[in-house]
Specification:
Blueprint (H helix, E strand, L loop, with lengths): L8 H8 L7 E2 L13 H7 L13 H11 L6 E5 L2 H11 L4 E5 L4 H8 L5 E4 L10 H4 L8 E5 L11 H10 L4 E5 L3 H4 L15 E6 L11 E5 L2 H8 L9 H12 L1 H25 L6 E2 L6 E5 L6 H10 L2 E2 L1 E2 L10 E5 L3 H16 L1
Parallel strand pairs: 1-11, 3-4, 3-5, 5-6, 6-7
Antiparallel strand pairs: 2-8, 7-8, 9-10, 10-13, 12-13
Helix pairs in contact: 3-10, 4-5, 11-13
Amino acid sequence: MIHGHGGNIFALARELGYRPEELTDMSSNINPLGPVPGLLAHLQVHLPRIQSLPEVDAARACVDLAGLLGLNPAHILAGAGTTQFIYSACSALKSSKVLIVAPTYADYADACRQHGIEPDFFCTRAEAQFHLDLAELEPKLPHYDTLFLCTPNNPCGQLIPLHGLNELARRHPHLRCIVDASYLPFAKPQLQGSLAALQAQNLLILWSGSKIFAIPGLRTGFLCAHPELLARFQHFAQPWSLSTLGQEAMHFLYANQEAVQQFVQETHQYIQTEKGLLFERLHNCNLRLIPSDTSFILIQLPPHLEAEQVRVAMLAERLLIRNATNFHGLDSSYIRVALKDSASNARFAKVLLQLAAG
């Protein structure tokens, strides 16, 4: 298990002698607006249900997600976060040659190595703002049986065109394409039909409630794929993998689809506004901000600054950001920041401007 993630606010608070609430966690890529209004109250009402086991296979939660996204419930498997599927993928798919589009989330490689597989990397280029060129990737694919990629990508934030990705998968039916779509609702604020362009039978889509609904502690992860591929993962599934409250959260979201859709659109509008302000504040100050389709932004620092230096300086202001050095393909000149409330975003920009000018 790696420990290089963002969001390790509890250990850091203990180390610094703070309460977690005293830190603003701009390293964690969850919705800056928090959970959907009414969700926490709903969970509180249903808290006594934790005295009983949840539904063993979370079948109702799969039906609920299918209703939210416009999918067939038979094409959905629920788990304890998408992490469960990432770490079982190599065994379930009998992978032997794995390619990862980088820089990206480190758990894909970590999961491969846990199964004795050393993955290869296809690295997008900084000069192209880390956009993935599918035409450049395609010639590599015949040499692999499994592909991991994230869209929009973490930490770069770019959305890969879904139709192009689908057609790429169709042209390589031998390849199992694992597409992490955990951040897709930030880029496509219409939930219903958002995965419609991804229909190739060799695509496996990871979908998370953690990010867009700001409930990572409930571990609401799903795998969307053709039933033949899902059956391979069911062989490794454990009973009761989605908790009682996690299942109840999905039911609330399905039962309140109109409010949920409005919330997702409000999130999108908020992010666009705050992102515009951040880019404006940091314009012309020797910083390179990578355009992002999500709530987080990858920033390249000027030559006199390093990521760890900036992270420590931000901690003095009780702001936790992500040192992006341990993303494969990045170096010590990169940080990642996730938008939060307006005041925190402005405070971050002010501190970074001072450091960049120094």
